[in-house]
Each structure stands twice: as structure tokens, then as C-alpha cells.
Amino acid sequence: MDRVAVTVIEEEELESTVLNFFGASFGYERTVSIGGTSFLLFTRRETESEAKFRPKTVRRWLLLPHAWVFTDRNQEVLVLGRDGKKPLKGGGLLSAPSSDGARPPKEFEEQGIDFVTRKFPGDLELYVVKAFLSTVLSETGLGSLGLPAPLAD
Question: Which of 34, 63, 111, 149 could be stapled to 141 by a disulfide with Cβ–Cβ 3.0 to 4.6 Å?
């Protein structure tokens, strides 16, 4: 049985680490504390299909509990572990096949974790672990992230 050398990622390592999620690379933006839980905010900017006459820039944010993010020292990638100790089976990069411009649906599963997508004014999409959705969308959570209320579905 192969052992994976993992450690919870330290703040200093985040600046130079990229997280692959749904076939796209996200860079570390900042750490946010919401309701006593420390979250890591990863961000990405991308342009909608270049085929459009006036493509717009979309901001994508990925919010993950800090205790769930690990560094796999063998592969030099980020992995997730819900229990704060072990990476999820299947380890490796968070990734799903992504076609050009594909975005996650409103609700989806990634490495056994349920995620939800919420849209905000200013062409912002937020991906958050479903179990933390109410905390993140609370007045305190939105204030900590500097976000207004999400757009209606």
C-alpha cells in the first residue's frame, strides 16, 4: 500500500501554489475567517468565448476550508481531505474534464465533495462546499468576503 506524504498546507506555501479545479487553475488570493472556520479563497479570471463580439471577463472564486487543503509532497499538488488528516481517495488534483469555457453546474460533486455555484453581480461565480453554504452566504460570511447578496437563480 502506497503512502501519500501529505501535510496541511501552510500559509507561506499558498502564494506559489496553484489549485486545479474543474480543469482550470486557481491561484491563492487570501485567507478568510467565517463563523470560526478558516477558509482559503482561490481565484481565477477568464474571458468568455473569444468568438463573441464583446466577450466579458468572468471572475471565478473557489472557497475551501483551510483544514481540508493538503500538499501532496510526492506529486507537488494540492489535495483535499474532509477529516483534516487524510486526502480523499483518488487524490491528486481536483479536476474534472472541461471543454472550452465549460463551467461547473449549479450543484456538482468533485472528489466526493458536494459543491454549489452561486452567481454574484459583476460577473462573479463562487464555488463553495455545500455543507458550508449557509455560513458563507450569511451576512457575516458575505461581509468577510466583501460580497453583496447573490443573484437570484
Answer: 34
